[in-house]
Design brief:
By secondary structure, the protein is α/β, with parallel strands linked by helices. It has one domain: P-loop containing nucleotide triphosphate hydrolases (Rossmann fold). Helices cover about 55% and strands about 15% of the residues. The chain is built from ten helices and eight strands. A five-stranded parallel beta sheet has the order 2-6-1-7-8, with helices on both faces. The chain has a three-stranded antiparallel beta sheet with strand order 3-4-5, with helices on one face. Helix 1 crosses helix 10 and helix 8 crosses helix 9.
Length: about 220
Amino acid sequence: MIITIDGPAGSGKSTVARKLAAHLEIPYLDTGAMYRALAYAALRAGIDVSDDAALHRFAEKVQLAVDCGPTFSRVRVDGHDVSEAIRSMEVSNVISSVARNQAVRQLLVEQQRRVGRRLGSFVTEGRDQGTVVFPDAEFRFVLLADLPMRAERRYREMVADGEDVDIKAVTDNLVRRDRVDSKQWEPLLASGNVPAIDTTNLSIHQVLDRILTELGVPGA
């Protein structure tokens, strides 16, 4: 069974995906971490991420590995675990340049599909999982939330991780990312066949229950 959860940053995808995978006792694949890991590695290597050709050449050489379990998704770059380091504002500020590079996207999509074939059953979350990477998934969902709530969630996460950020910088970053990212899940919304859950005023437990109901699985 493959379950995809797409939507914007701060909508609750990662938390819900982890909890859903744990409830179903299947692996969780965080594809956004792969884009972040590449961005992080490029920054460390002095690569101009806005140079599409240079970033693509770098992406072809760097070794990304993902370790997926029911409650975690760890990512390594050339053997080094960068799962925490990739969550910085520095990486967030350049992630859109990585995400809109079509040659890079194709490389990562192919890798995500290879991971999927290895896992068999899993929960995956990102921006294009239900449209591009696993369009034939048995269950596909889109999570949404209004911008102020998403910014507040991301701000709290980053402060908890020790980042020195302010809410305006986080909000501006989300607005920039939405301009690129929203094109990835909009086809799912337009189809009318994929459940869209507005998480703005819902707890994680409520969102999880909504998804479990759609799956026909007893609640948590």
